[in-house]
């Protein structure tokens, strides 16, 4: 199995990713990993968390990069709209299109070359997450898996689609119990 990890400046997720890489590479069968860094800053700050011999891909300039016609443009503005209140970014429409096109081209190049079974990142809540989900959906044999902090303390949730919780899609029964009863017992701490 091959997994492409998408690495950004997200504080909590990369430490968890590093632990997952260490454990799954030692497992039988071993899982192969490759890394995609969305910026030079992410690479400089987070590369040291991972073994040095993993394939590394980075965001880069692609002069001919354009987004596919069916990419929903509302997704491209998520990252910038959040910052507009603080005036942190002052990009015009053309700059946003260029940056999104470069992100698409560089991440797509990594997926095409590595042919991962899974792209692993956080829930699509930024242009990077939206792009990873979009590319996985159009790359045969590649699925998107999202990681998110759980509302339940000391847990991490996994999603196997943009907004679908992984466990719900696997089975309607858990350990011979109906899913809704299992969930109720779990939340109310009657079972672990």
Q: Which secondary structure elements does this structure contain, and how are they paired or packed?
A:
Layout: E1 2-7, H1 11-26, E2 32-37, H2 40-46, E3 56-58, H3 73-76, H4 78-84, H5 93-114, E4 118-122, H6 127-137, E5 143-149, E6 156-159, H7 166-170, E7 173-174, E8 177-178, H8 179-187
Parallel strand pairs: 1-2, 1-4, 2-3, 4-5
Antiparallel strand pairs: 5-6, 7-8
Q: Give me the Rg, rounded.
A: 18 Å
Q: Give the number of helices.
A: 8
Q: How does the helix and strand content classify structurally? A: alpha/beta
Q: Separation of termini?
A: 29 Å
What sort of overall outline do the alpha carbons produce when their principal axes are compared?
A: globular
Mean pLDDT, to the nearest integer, reads 80
The biggest beta sheet is recorded as: 6 strands, mixed
Strand order of the largest sheet: 3-2-1-4-5-6
Helix percent reads 40-55%
Count all strands and give the number: 8
Poorly predicted regions: 167-175
What is the percentage of strand-forming residues? Answer: 15-25%
Report the order of strands and helices.
Answer: EHEHEHHHEHEEHEEH
User: Regarding quaternary structure, how should these chains be classified?
Assistant: single chain
